[in-house]
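New to this. Please check both lines:
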Amino acid sequence: MEKIKFNKENLPNGETMAYRHKVKGNKTLLLVHGNQSSSIFYEDLMNNLDDNINIYAIDLMGFGDSTYKNKHSLIKDWAEDVNEFMEIKNIKNAVVVGWSLGGGVVMELAANHPEKVKHLVLLASVGVKGYPMFKYDENLKPILSEPIYKEEDIVKDPVLMIPVLKGIEEQNAEFFTEVWRKTIFNLNEPEEEVYKSYMEAILKEKCFLDVSVALINFNITREKSVINGSGRIENIKMPVTWIHGEKDLVVPIKTGIDSIKYFETKTDFIKFENSGHAMFMDESEKFINILEKIVSDN
C-alpha cells in the first residue's frame, strides 16, 4: 500500500497550503473537505482507494494546517486558492471531489477553471443557492420569512454561530465531540483515536465566521436567493455526480435534489439510503466503488 505523505506548499498569493498526497498512477483525484474539518477526514478513504490513483487531499485556507493570512469573503476566494495549488503542482486536470462546504468550493473551481475539472463529484454539498440562515423567534425557532446574510447579523446567531465561535475560542473538544456525535456521526462513530484527531483538526479552524458568511451568500445560479446569483453554473460543462445521504442532518437531501436541476450538463444523483452527512464514511465500500469507477472512466 502506498503511504500517504503530508506536505505544505507555498502559494503565489502568500498563503501556505497543507495537503496529503498518495503518489501513484496517472489518474489524478483531488479531495476538498467541508467546514469544520480538514484533509485528515479523507485519510481512511485515501488508504482504501486503488493504489493506482494519484490522490491529493488539501486543507483549505483557514483550515487544518493551512495558513489564513488573507481574509476571504466569497466561496470563490477559496476556489482560487485551489486553482493556485493545482497550478503550482502542475495538476492539469483531475476528478475533483467536494464535501459539504467543499462542494461550493469545487463548483466555483469548475465554473471558473473548467479545464481543470474532468468530472465534478459533490458530496452532501451546500446547495447551488448557498446555506440559508434565519432570524429566530423567542422560542429559538427559525423565522423562515426572515433570512439573514450580513456578517453583523450572522455573528449574533444564538443557535450556531455563538456556540461554535465560543467552542473554537475555548478550544473545547468536548463540545465539538458532542455536536458531531449528534449531527455528522449520528449513524456511525469513528474509532476513539481517529475521532480525537478529527476534533483536533476542527479546533484549528481560523475562518468559521468568514466561511459561514460566504456560504450564506453563495449563489451560483442566475436566480435570486438572499442575493442575486452569479450565473456561473452555466460554465460547468463537465459531468457532475451528486451523492447525498438520505439521513443527512446537516444538509438535507432535498437540497441536492433541488440543486441538480440547475446544471445544464449531464448530472447523476446518487442517494445513499443508510448514510448521514459523511456518506463516504457511513457506506465506505459502496462509495469507493462509485468513486473508483468515476476515476477510471476519466
Q: What stands out?
A: The CA atoms of residues 280 and 287 lie 6 Å apart. The chain has a mean pLDDT of 95. DSSP finds eleven helices and ten strands in the chain.
